[in-house]
Amino acid sequence: MKKVAVTGASGHIGANLVRELIGRGYEVVTLIRQTSLALEGLDVVRVDGNVLDQQSLCKAFRGVEQVYHLAAYISIQSGDNEKLEQVNIEGTRNVLEACRSEGVSTLVYFSSIHALELEPMDRPVTEENPLLGERNGHGGDYDFSKAAAERLVRENSCKALGTRIIYPTAVLGPNDYHGSLFGQAIIKMAHGRLPAMVSGGFNWVDARDVAWGAVEAAEKGADSDRYILSGHYLSVSEVARLIAELTGIAAPRLSIPNRVAALFAPLMAGWARLSGQAPLYTRDSLAALTTNKVMSHARASRELAYQPRTFRASMRDVLEFYNNIKQ
């Protein structure tokens, strides 16, 4: 039985990846900061720690052949640079050092589609798109932190430690126990609590498909291979209409142009700080909704037989999951 380790195992993609690995017969070691429903009842080895604790990383990676590095700090707000750099960049540096010291053979690093330059807008985004530069190009603080972390992974790929890099697009799917940003928006739509929509859209992919593709990349890919694991483009209004169709709850009637919504982004951020809740949207999240519409998974389909399920199938399962965990 092959032994693998997963950082960020209790996150949305991580929870689905752990289930995919267990289903394939792997022995899974999870690095976790705290107990989570995402891993409850699963046959995994739990190591308490985090990516800033080198000792816990080495403990989790001991005797492991492959490491899946998903742990990251996700933020769509400004002012989080210090934590983004600490967790996403320095944390990745620590993971690389622990992999080398423990003799790990393969590291699968989960980057982000936003770590890549997504322009020009009239061409599909592929794995050949360049990484965001040092604070150059269009992107938020999170995007630049993921690009910097990926640069470390690329620079440290070697014969002793082979790497694969995964680029998920906007993720939905079951096992979202901590309530991702998109998941929270889905719940609000499904209960008629979203007062208005914004214009724009994005490429949405099921977390289960990302998990499947990542394991295939680890097993079938070659050193330094990179794969975009995308799904289907839908506008926010199309997402809302499908949720309304599946739930019987009317979609928001008001749709605000993206440029108008951007004017109110500072107010949203201020309210979020006062209430202690995540903002409904920020300038960074609005920018993501107006980016390139075509994120190509042609390489993954060709080399890994990757084929994402339909958005309708994903949304149906997502709504069932959120309904069940509320009971």
Would you summarize the structure shown here?
The chain contains 12 helices and 12 strands. The chain is α/β, with parallel strands linked by helices.
Helix-strand string: EHEEHEHEHEEHEEHEEHEHHHHH
Beta-strand percentage? 15-25%
CATH topology of the domain at 3-178 and 203-232 and 294-308: Rossmann fold
CATH 2nd-level architecture of the domain at 3-178 and 203-232 and 294-308: 3-Layer(aba) Sandwich
Distance between the termini: 37 Å
Structural class: alpha/beta
Quaternary assembly? single chain
How large is the count of helical segments? 12
**Uncertain parts:** none
Task: Give me the CATH superfamily of the domain at 3-178 and 203-232 and 294-308.
Answer: NAD(P)-binding Rossmann-like Domain
Q: Can you tell me about this structure?
A:
- By secondary structure, this protein is α/β, with parallel strands linked by helices.
- The chain has a domain at 3-178 and 203-232 and 294-308: NAD(P)-binding Rossmann-like Domain (Rossmann fold, 3-Layer(aba) Sandwich), CATH 3.40.50.
- 43% of the residues lie in helices and 17% in strands.
- It has twelve helices and twelve strands.
- The strands form three sheets. It has a seven-stranded parallel beta sheet with strand order 3-2-1-4-5-6-10, with helices on both faces. A three-stranded mixed beta sheet has the order 7-9-11. Strands 8-12 form a two-stranded parallel sheet.
- The longest helix has 22 residues, at 81-102.
